[in-house]
Every structure is written in structure tokens, then in C-alpha cells.
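Suppose a colleague, Dr. K., hands you the sequence of a protein chain of 249 amino acids and asks what its three-dimensional shape might be. Before reaching for any lab equipment, you can write down a predicted structure in C-alpha cell form. Begin with the sequence itself:
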Amino acid sequence: MIAGLPKHLMQFAQSGTAEIECWKCGAWITAEHGAENEPFAAFAESHIDCTGEKTAMKIGYARVSTHEQNLDLQTDALRAAGAEKIYKDILSGSKTASDRPGFENLLSHVREGDCVVVWRLDRLARSLKDLIEIAADFEARGVQLVMLTEAIDTTTPSGRLFFHIFGAVAEFERNLIVERTHAGLASARARGRKGGRPKALDTDKEKTVRTLLAAAKKKREHFNFGQIGRSVGASERTIRRFAIREKYL
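The predicted structure, expressed as C-alpha cells, is then:
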């Protein structure tokens, strides 16, 4: 690592890698141990007099499914594409984004204007649905996306079309869900069934509750909503609401 850095340039060491972060602008650089001195020195020199203006970064993401597989192919390609920091996961592609700690860290650090770089599309998403959600999240946050193998780059006009297409697919899927839900409810109503939560008190239970409330009122006793609820298998809150609706209170 580099000695004599100002306080706003912080050095960190992790397993296999080291990094320097500028706390003024949020930029950072990472490299494998033993290879960091030259790029770190250049980064430190460029941020010695940092004014705090945030600069966009290229951030890489690499994933393999098992420990027997090697990340080197992906990380080499990401660095060649200009990735300044690389987040990694060794997890099955069947895991969702929330189950991948490396990807979760990337999402928590990425900022508007940054560009996320992946070697191949299937390294980023486990399914089309997952990809649509990630792409929509990146677009909403102003984050660009580059997929090296597929030559998709959303910093270009043709690449931005990718975001628009997947945004349209996501909206189409949401509309289909709403349409199916409405159709299902209409079909249920036509058969005499109502959607939504079942009633806590059916007709027989309401009759029992009315009798118990009327008896307590006649004797000028305090309404014991909890006891009445237990007798019909309902909550105290449900009985209290029923009493208010029926004007016992």
C-alpha cells in the first residue's frame, strides 16, 4: 500500500485485493495484492487535491457458480473494459439478487451516472424476469449497463433501446397481471363468490355476538370483548368493531 496519504484517501485490505477510496468524491480503485502500487499511485495522485465533485465510475460484476470455477476470465475482461472496482459472487445463478452478497454490495455503492459492466448477460441475471427488474432499477437510478459478450452498452443510443425494450416488457407484464386479476375477480363474482378477505364473523357468529352483547347491556355489565371473541373464534378487535357498527357502543 501507499504511505503518507491525506486523510480523505482511505486504504483498505480485503482477502486477495486492496483498494483506496476517496471520501470526498466517493471514487475508488481496487487491484489484486502485489499489483496495486502503480494504479494506486496514479489514483492517489489524481485525488490528492480532490474538490469533492463526484465522478462517474465503471464498476464490474463477476459471478461463477462453484468454487471449482475460476473468476479470472471475467475479471480480466472487466478490467480491460475499464472497470475500476469489481464485485464478485461464487453462487448458483438460481439465486435471486437479494441472495448474492457481492451483487447486493454493488447495488448499495452504485450511484447515478455510474456504469455497471458484466462479462455476459447470464452473469448478471438468473432469468428474464430478474433481468427486467435489474434493468428497470438501473434505469430508474440513472445507472448505465454494459454487457461485453452481447455488445450491449446503454451509454449508446442503440444500447439505451435495451432499457426501453425491457421497460416496455415489464409494463406489459404488470398490465397482464392486473388484467388477469380483474378477470379472475369478475369470473368469481359471476359464480357468486366475492374476492378479498373472508369475513371474520359469519351470520351465525354475528347472531351469537348480538345475543351476548344484548345480554350484557341489559344487565348493565361491562362488555368483555375478549371473552365474547374467544367464544366465537374471533379477535377482541373484531368484536369491538362489530359492537360499534351495531351501535352497542
